[in-house]
Write a structure and sequence with these properties.
The protein has 335 residues and is an all-alpha fold. It has a domain at 2-90. 72% of the residues lie in helices and 0% in strands. The chain has 16 helices and no strands. Helix 6 runs parallel beside helix 8 (154-164). The longest helix has 31 residues, at 170-200. It is elongated and about 125 Å long. The chain starts with a helix and ends with a helix.
Length: 335
Amino acid sequence: MVCAVILLILGLLAEGTALWALFVLTTPEMQFAAYSLLHLLSALLISLFIYRFLPLRYQAQRFRTLAFLTTLQFAIPLIGSLGALAAILPAIYLTRRRGRQPFEVVEIPELPYRPVSVSAQPLYSQGGLVQVLREAGDVEKRMKALIATRMMPERQRMQLLKEALRDPEDDVRLLAYAMLEEKEAEINGRIMERQEALEKAPAAERPRLLLLLAQDYWELIFLGIATGGLRRYYLQQCERALETVLEARRDAQALRLLGRVRLAQNRPDEAARLFEAAMDAGMPEEQLLPYVAEAAFLQRQFDRVAEALHRYRARVGRPHPTLLPVVRWWTEAGT
């Protein structure tokens, strides 16, 4: 500490002597030379004084720190040293006052000590949610049941939302209607984008866009969002788009989707031919055989229904859970 005070006193004396030399020496050259040397010496001594009080991370780079402090003071005569003493040291050792925090910091709560077991049967099955929507007396429970439908397949979800439209409580009906409107607006937005893209697309790109447009129309029909006259209109639009695609190229997806449209229009004969054409175009049988069986059922050709479902079961091994009861009935009824 004594050495530091000595360095400060010598630095101030050197600065004072430099100022004295400006008024005592006679020629400007001698005045400039004497003042520059003494001012440089003062800057170096005061830099050594400040350096002794700096934190260790600054003292680790001794040459750079001393060069910076010395240059800063030498470049500003007289007030450079005073400014360094008045600004650097108080900034380091005088802590800044902080305002009171307007919030409280809390620790992150711990996760459950064991994971929740997830079974193959979801917690909110379709039947369970229907029971809640129909029988739960608490409006809050029915609202939560509607929100839980977001985790379900879209077609089942739409059925439950339509069920909720008959709820006696306004809040439940409004929430169900808003969720239906949200899904319909999403699909209609895609349809508008496809239609705008079609107007600008080259001829080679149009079949792909028309197929996507037909899939959007079919989604409105499949989910049950469109009913009555609007459903018939969307079926016509979907049919027209798919026929345009098939005029341009033989597309297996377009053939299958057009077959499903024909089933929705109660034209099973044409649907069966389209499904066979889709198989010939390269689409795997397992993706078409359930629809072949449906077309055969509508034609009252029950032998073909059993044959198609036997082939389907042989191809996939274990049918999809939604088809499993139907497949079992038709394939195991005679055994």
